[in-house]
Amino acid sequence: MKRYASAATPCVRRHRAVPQLLGLQVVARPVKAVVLLYPDYEGLDKENEEEDACIANEGKPQLDDTIFWIKSTAHAEPWPLFMPWPMYMQSFMASASSEPSHLVGGDLHTHKCPPQIHRPMSSHFADKTPEERAHLLETTPLFTSIHTESAESGQSPPDPNMPFHFTCFVAAPEVEFREITSGEKPVPNAEDITKSTG
Questions:
Q1: pLDDT digits (tens, 9 = 90+) for 89-148
Q2: Count of the separate structural domains present in the chain
Q3: Contact at 8 Å (CB) between 17 and 177?
Q4: Residue 18 is part of a domain; what is its CATH number?
């Protein structure tokens, strides 16, 4: 996973169109989001610090208004925390009468957002600020069942000595790859996304 910033948008993480990412083009439709797990690499922390400083000083370009962003404050297993992102994107982009469509999780299994999760997420997150969403995500028992089910369904154990990161790609009108991390600071476009689903 390689990132770069252009001269026009120096503070935005963008992914190069490397073969690994081109593989996303063959993901079965109607998948709306893909969660990827990748190992840490030398210099990543420094890149993140430099980018945070750039955003603080110069601001950040407007995010696509179909992106629903939640800041992560829980220091726990990232898998259950990342799942709400694509699941909410499913419910946000789908019509009110349709079932949430399938999505691909970090273990490359196909999942479907269950109604008992889909409905509470829609009602609980819609009118919250990113900080309020983060607190709700950190404290709600809503996702305990997801974590338990995933842990008991059989997964390959990760290397305990290898730090990993999660990233999530969602379907949006923009054609470029843009990464919006859950721990990003300051909050991107805070004035625009406060009390909204933008």
A1: 555 444 433 443 333 333 333 344 555 555 556 666 667 776 777 777 677 776 666 556
A2: 1
A3: yes
A4: 3.40.532.10
